[in-house]
Amino acid sequence: MKTIEIYKRFSHWTPIYILDRIRLFIDQVFNPNDPWWSRDAIDVVEQILHEDDIALEFGSGRSTIWIGQRVKKVTSVEHNKSWFEKVSTSIDKQGINNIDLSLYSSENYLSVLGGFEHNSLDFVVVDGIKRGECALKSFPILKKGGVMVIDDAHRFFPSQSRAPYSRRNSYKDKIWQEVAELIRGSRKIWVGDGVTETLIIIKDCT
Known about the structure:
7 helices
């Protein structure tokens, strides 16, 4: 039984995957301040962001400061206290004053949305806990033409990604089916590196 469990855990460690991991590691070493997204995802988002944008981020990290340096205001939500303190310290050291990082319990995680009106946000990142609920509840808050980034999207939507744990023909659960229906009329850009896959959604402008 233990042998089977070990095999399942490491079965995706193919030569191609190992090479992808090495490429990702090298990229992160040379770009220590960039988000933990694929290089293509970073490049696409960097072209989209505007200095007047208002952003909301579920799940803080290196992306928090990176986004804050490119937009007018960022509201970031974190549920892990130790990680919240670490990111807060980094923000203070950088002297950035346009980031509102808050600690929420997992039960109250989505209550941050109460501070925003529909069609009021330019940019949303879904990269923390309760991703399906976060995507479903925050998408209506995006302006038309606004952008949502869902990290590790291959784990939730059917895709052709070669990244581990990719879903081929099914959604993770009913919530993600509802998200798919909600974003049906929007432009979708899939970008990945063989380790993870990021879905960039541009809200329908019609």
